[in-house]
Structure prediction request, 278 residues.
Amino acid sequence: MKILMCTNGQEHAEKALNFAGQLFRYTKPEIGIVTIARRLAHPPKIEEKWLERAKNILANYDIRAETKIREGYISDEIIRESREGNYDLLVIGSRGYSEILVGVTEVILGEIAQYVIQKAKTSLLVVKEPKPLHKVLICTDGSLHAEEAIHFWGKLNLPHQPKVNIINVVPEIYSRFRDILEPVAESQLDMLGALPSKRTEYLYKAKDILGKYAVEAKIKLREGQAAEEILKEAKNDYDLIIMGAGGRKGDKKETIGRQTRRVIRQAKIPVLAIRPKD
Prediction:
């Protein structure tokens, strides 16, 4: 696996490096670290310090990295480097929270991060307010992207597995199955193993895939709009959301699907969005 990480010397970028080091330390990936200079100095002392700090952060996780300084507009150069280097995954940091009113905060996804998310043709890890991994939410809808995401998590081979829950969101459960189901409370939608639905099959297939990697998981079935229900579930003390990047089943042309973009924008925790490599 080949991973591109970005740094500008700021706290949110270095938090992203630490989180990625924690996540990938056991897979021994090939790592590149890039920083972008608007106008390249001679020598580029500040950028070199940023890169040296980034290398030291990853060295704490026994990960070696190659570094590069590019000159130009930041978001364009990040995308260009990810494509020219044929990377499998791009890691970017988010600024986290910003207080906009007294007692009111929102998650900030900067202009550069938003551009990168729209244009990247690789898988993405967008890191916001990272914490140690204790609880992970994996999303599935039966798509190729979702299955790739499930395999991706299994292959990380973490020796100390966090708690893993798999979620699928289905529309109109009540109306679709009103003839065969008694009224069901929302709390009972966690485990409807007998529900005659393809969506339940997706959950059990995801669970079986993880089982092959010796990863135990519980399944959760939700009703409603996908991104909304994923974000609602993520508020239950999760530390990472993992999902497929694309919108349509088997669609490799789309970079990041609408539902995934919404989750990335609004989630208060890191989001790993996986797309099959072309």
Summary: The chain has two domains: 1-129, 131-278. The first strand starts at residue 2 and ends at 6.
